[in-house]
Design brief:
Order of helices and strands: HEHEEHHEHEHEHHHHE
CATH architecture of the largest domain: 3-Layer(aba) Sandwich
Shape: globular
Structural class: alpha+beta
Number of domains: 2
Largest sheet: 7 strands, mixed
CATH class of the largest domain: Alpha Beta
InterPro entries: Acyl_CoA_acyltransferase (IPR016181)
Organism: Anaerobaca lacustris
Protein name: N-acetyltransferase domain-containing protein
Oligomer: single chain
CATH topology of the largest domain: Aminopeptidase
Number of strands: 7
């Protein structure tokens, strides 16, 4: 059987069905984020129509839709400020009514590379029945399945706070040139050791810049100084996810 025929036969052998949050658990190990998704609203599975040899009938892939995070900077750009300028309560109500987020997407290794991730996104976007669906992916430029499924990509922009932190690190003598060719050190332990050697004045200056970043990161803003906080900051500075937005062809944004 040639590769194209095998691809077609595998696609034909699978169907997209609704699932439960627990159905995602066996596939969670194949996603780069370890924590459980929160506020799950819908789960869809790629399930074999008939047993596939030793693989049986277990899901070949899963996609998880959750409630939207209210703090997503690129949403303002993608929606032309639709959710901006509102008090917090009104903003949350509008988001919760009209937006869902693709929080997880995982495919079993034997089924990768044949377009199943794109199919799973494309065939489920309309089934969550909201006007807007968003997604964010660190590896979006490498694996553009969201875009192939019909979602519009928006390139990430460094925030003012992140740029100030990079400059603060450079000012205290830590190499943090703010461009893609010279990223921050990828070893958080090495970065933490450099931070711990700073004198009091430099440490206080850097801490102010760190707090400027963390203030918009929910519960992370109270993280104590140390290796875990440095590791978190490093991921925020070096992994800027691509933002994707899909608009339902018939549903319009409505107020609660």
């Amino acid at each position: 059987m040639n590769p194209q025929s095998q691809r077609c036969s595998l696609h034909a052998a699978l169907e997209v069905v609704a699932g439960e949050a627990a159905d995602y658990a066996p596939l969670a190990a194949y996603h780069y984020r370890n924590e459980k998704p929160r506020a799950v609203k819908a789960v869809f599975l790629l399930r074999p129509k008939q047993p596939l040899g030793a693989f049986g009938t277990r899901p070949a892939g899963a996609i998880v839709y959750c409630m939207p995070n209210p703090r997503v900077e690129m949403r303002r750009i993608a929606t032309a400020g639709l959710f901006a300028g509102l008090d917090r309560q009104s903003q949350l109500a509008l988001l919760n009514r009209n937006v869902r987020c693709i929080a997880r997407l995982a495919i079993e290794p034997p089924f990768r590379g044949i377009g199943l991730a794109t199919r799973l996104v494309r065939e489920t976007l309309g089934r969550v029945e909201v006007p807007l669906v968003e997604a964010m992916a660190v590896c979006g430029a490498v694996h553009p399945f969201f875009e192939r499924a019909g979602m519009q990509p928006f390139a990430p922009r460094a925030s003012v706070e992140h740029a100030m932190l990079r400059e603060a690190l450079s000012a205290v003598g830590i190499d943090a040139r703010a461009n893609d060719d010279s990223p921050l050190p990828i070893d958080p332990q090495a970065l933490q050791q450099q931070i711990e050697t700073l004198d009091n004045a430099k440490a206080a200056f850097l801490e102010r810049a760190i707090q400027g970043v963390l203030k918009s990161h929910g519960t992370r803003r109270t993280m104590p100084s140390g290796l875990e906080r440095t590791r978190y900051l490093l991921t925020r500075l070096t992994q800027r996810p691509m933002y994707y937005l899909w608009r339902h062809p018939t549903l319009e944004v409505t107020w609660p």
